[in-house]
Amino acid sequence: MIKFEIKPIKYYSSTLLANVEHYVLIAEKDKKRILVSIPNIYLYRKSRSSMQTSKRYATLIAQFYRFLSNFEKFKLVEPGDYHIHVSNVEIRHWQIFRQQKRISRGTPHPTSETIYSDATTVYYFFKWLSDEGIPTGVKIRLKTWIANFKDRRLLNYLAKKTKLSLDTDPIRVLDKQARQKKAVHLIKHSEVKTLLSAYPDKVYAVLFNFALATAMRPMELVKFPYMGNGKNRHILPYSQMDSEIKSHDYNVFGKGNKFRDIKIPDYALKMLEDEYIKNEYPARARLYRKKFGKKCPLSILFLTAEGVPVTPSMIANATNYAKRLAVAKDPSFATTNIFYHARKWWPTMMMVQHHNGEDILKKDAEVMHVALTQVIINQMGHEDPSTTYQHYLVLARYLVMANRGITHETIHEDALNIHEALEKFG
């Protein structure tokens, strides 16, 4: 029997002349551990910019390979050659298998949407193989890898396998339960206060506030420097910057190994200095020097109370812990709140204020405003203008409908103060 597992690795790349890190896929067969080359090359090429992304890609490929190992046709195939023998049919069967398990357990997760999304991630691995000229049995131009869970014949098959009556339509019911648990909402002002007070380490509260003001992802936040260089050489502690400028351009290296220019409001830099740099950073930097034997680089700003640079996974873990404390303080605190919700306030308030508050409820607000959308996708790092616009239009309408009578003047990106917006909209 073949076992598949994933492991994080870090090494020096002679091609890039830099240290890189990503996850790798390891197969265990006949008491031997084998690095599965082709998936690992893919993980190196496509996921080394984010360990979270790398872990997700590696986990899904490992899950799919484990599924394949149960097929008779793969019994005599070496793990490193799976990609040659797999076809569209196996990707579809994997989706059906996961849906079958979900129905049998009677749980809402993974949803049909998640199952399809995961299969798409695996499919793009095979698309990359095709683009690179690496042999694979997956036909990229054919959509036969997609499992249509609305198809009557497939529903009949699943009902038979899971011994459930088709009349109950188990897939639809379970998906509905999942949607009820995953309501679209913005974290409330009272919840922000509770969460900020629940973080055991001040640095995470500061990062959350900084995310509210900038819409940066956790992987981008942790790279924000004490002092910038290159394109960001003008980024300094607030007291050393020009106080007449209300927002500052900042060049972000973000998701997908792409650079983009965003706006950092001066009040956010002031918050960093007042709440972290003046009182917290000096002691943490000394601990960094003691721990690592060298002065903390100016490229690193956010350090834990132990003097360790903050990572995205640390943010996630600290937030999960803080959420438990927040619920203990206030039982009404929504457990569905996550750190990433801080990122949603910026584009939502941009949308509300551009449409003069309640005007956003009018039908013509649905027509995509090109300039506004460009500002939002630049700040967020999104690629699909239409989807981005519609998503934040929905959130903005939620907000206005819940706060009738509260409107804002037309906003400019240089003047957007999310902390003030939270006070008004809650």
Automatic annotation (TrEMBL):
The keyword DNA-binding does not apply. SUPFAM superfamilies: DNA breaking-rejoining enzymes. GO terms for molecular function: DNA binding. Transmembrane segments: none annotated. The keyword Chaperone does not apply. It comes from the Bacteria. InterPro entries: DNA_brk_join_enz, Integrase-like_cat_sf. GO terms for biological process: DNA integration; DNA recombination. Keywords: DNA recombination. This is Tyr recombinase domain-containing protein.
